Amino acid sequence: MSETERGSSVVVRGVAAEDRDAWAALYRGYRDFYGKPHDERVYTTVWGWLADPAHQTRGLIAEIDGSPVGIAHYRAYARPIMGDSGIYLDDLFTAADARGTGTGTAILHRLAEIARDEGASLVRWITDEQNTTARSLYDRVAQQTPWVTYDLRPAEQPGRPAE
């Protein structure tokens, strides 16, 4: 639990079945922020992952005074070069009206606790270079790496025209 600048506490916990609607509203906000269209298939798929204890993707929800104000999606990943594992933060979002309350910091601190408890050596994530608000937080709590990210699309199916 973290104290916010407004005097309330931020509670960060794992998502639960009853969080579906609040999670969906926050996830829509996250996708809006990155200019992604609303897509029920995506929401259904990701929620299915979060609800499935056998799936690698896990979720956190942050609350202030019982109201959901932030989410994170994360997963464990192997680090063969180090012979250990890490936690990969896929998504982190704080509702616009909750920014500046310490919600993002509380989520990152909770992820650091999860990494410790699971024996992971670090928490890693990427962010948009232009996301200066988030980066100001990240620069305070983590170390920026020199690594450059690449995306490679799957090979085309033989006999199938390119889209």
Under CATH, the homologous superfamily reads Gcn5-related N-acetyltransferase (GNAT)
Query: Mean pLDDT across all residues, rounded?
Result: 94
CATH architecture classification name: 3-Layer(aba) Sandwich
Biggest sheet descriptor? 6 strands, mixed
Q: How many β-strands, per DSSP?
A: 6
Q: Beta-strand level of the residues, as a percent range?
A: 25-35%
Q: Could you give the order of the helices and strands?
A: EEHHEEEHEH
The secondary-structure class comes to alpha+beta
CATH class: Alpha Beta
Report, as a whole number of angstroms, the end-to-end distance: 48 Å
Count of domains: 1
The CATH topology is given as Aminopeptidase
Shape: globular
Uncertain stretches? none
* Helix content range: 25-40%
Q: How many alpha or pi helices?
A: 4
Strand order of the largest sheet: 1-2-3-4-5-6
Question: Radius of gyration in whole Å, from Cα?
Answer: 17 Å
Structure described in brief:
With 163 residues, the chain is α+β, with helices and mostly antiparallel strands.
